[in-house]
Amino acid sequence: MPRRLAALGLLALAACGAPVSETLTTVRHVPSNAVYAGDARMHLFIFDPSEPRSLEDRKAIARRSIALEPNCAWVDAPDDVLEAETRKQGDRYAETMLVAPLRCNRA
């Protein structure tokens, strides 16, 4: 019986977390040649092209991804900069890519 209660407790805690689709979402990123704020480089974050996402969603997923990389750090930039840099990739990528600055060490 205690195991069953523990399992129910874990299920209840899991229900309080982020939606499963967001925690499993992956993103790839590649550096560009564009410099931002002197020592940061703009990176292209590439999401699943079949699922358009808002700017806030793309930023949140990208930030979570970068938090797992010990050699890179997110650099805050205004949303209008992120939107303008992303639009440079083409209108059809406006909701499936994100261009944002990072500071990365080459370790």
Automatic annotation (TrEMBL):
Residues 1-20 form the signal peptide. It comes from the Bacteria. Keywords: Signal. The keyword Signal applies. This is Lipoprotein. It comes from Silicimonas algicola.
